[in-house]
Amino acid sequence: MIDRDTKRLRKQAERDRRVEQVYQKDRKFYEIDQALRLTGIQLVQTALGKITPQELAQLEQTRAELNKAREKRIKTLKLDKNLFEVHWDCQKCQDRGWTDFGVKCTCLIQEEIDQAFTQSGLTEEMKSQNFETFDLQWYARQGEQGPALAERMSKVLKLCHSFTQDVIAGKSQKDLLFYGAVGTGKTHLSSAIANELLAQGKSVVYRSISQIITSIYEAKFDFQNQGRQPEVLKSLRQADLVIIDDLGTEKTTEFVITELFELVNDRQRMGKPLLISTNIALRDLPGRYSLRTADRLITRSICIQFDGTSIRQLRAEKAL
Fold this sequence. Notes:
This protein is of the alpha/beta class. The protein folds into two domains: 4-77, no CATH class; 121-319, Rossmann fold, CATH 3.40.50. Helices cover 59% and strands 9% of the residues. The chain has helices at 4-25, 27-44, 53-77, 106-119, 124-127, 137-140, 146-169, 186-199, 209-221, 228-238, 254-269, 285-289, 291-299, 311-319, and strands at residues 175-180, 204-208, 241-247, 274-278, 301-306. A five-stranded parallel beta sheet has the order 2-3-4-1-5, sandwiched between helices. Helix 2 runs antiparallel to helix 3 (53-77) and helix 11 runs parallel beside helix 13 (291-299). The protein is elongated and about 90 Å long. The model has no long low-confidence stretch (mean pLDDT 87). GO terms for molecular function: ATP binding. InterPro entries: AAA+_ATPase, IstB_ATP-bd, P-loop_NTPase.
């Protein structure tokens, strides 16, 4: 996240440099501004009762005359008035991130969203995949089964959108388990869900199973990086959504089976949803990850099968 105090100081310093350049070019302008500062200090003293009403009236008249002289000098020198202002990126909060009423500013919300996109694990291509770009026509064109396949995927699309809205609303729900052939839309819909959540300021971790297991292993056993364990495990267990991609492509070990079960169990216990994508059949999960883990994955998830011809293959063939 941006160091906002440092940013504000930098913006103010930039303004001071611009003003100093004007002072160096025009001594009279400098003298007017210095007189205005002195008058301002004297007026502050009125709150302390250190000047008489007559002196106060004279100071206010002097300030008015100086302001008039300053405006005239600005016109003579053809200066932009904005030159003397701090050029905040966000005028609403002046780059503080919070409004005067203690409410998080929209610029800070956007910054958090941008950071979430950076840290989510989404590639540039995946960031462009959303519900609107999920084209059902690729399914409709697949021979005799096309119309029925497109109709079923239309229902899947609506289900995924509903799942996303429930996550945004913080509603407790089942996990999603996508399974089926390569290139049939699992990644696109996973990315669409992630992008919609990120746009709404929700936190998403999108990683392959190998990346997740590696992160957990390094956090627990890489003693040269002590202190990472709480951060890594917290993000995996407390993110609004964790998406595990390519389940089944990793080398399955006892450590993998144990950590996968713990992650699934912890998130289900905390009411935090998972989205898991795999190319292997549901019937093969028990033999690979133990009956206990497979039971948690299958019985507590909405299982959606993706089939048909690879969309990526169809796109590639059309491009020829």
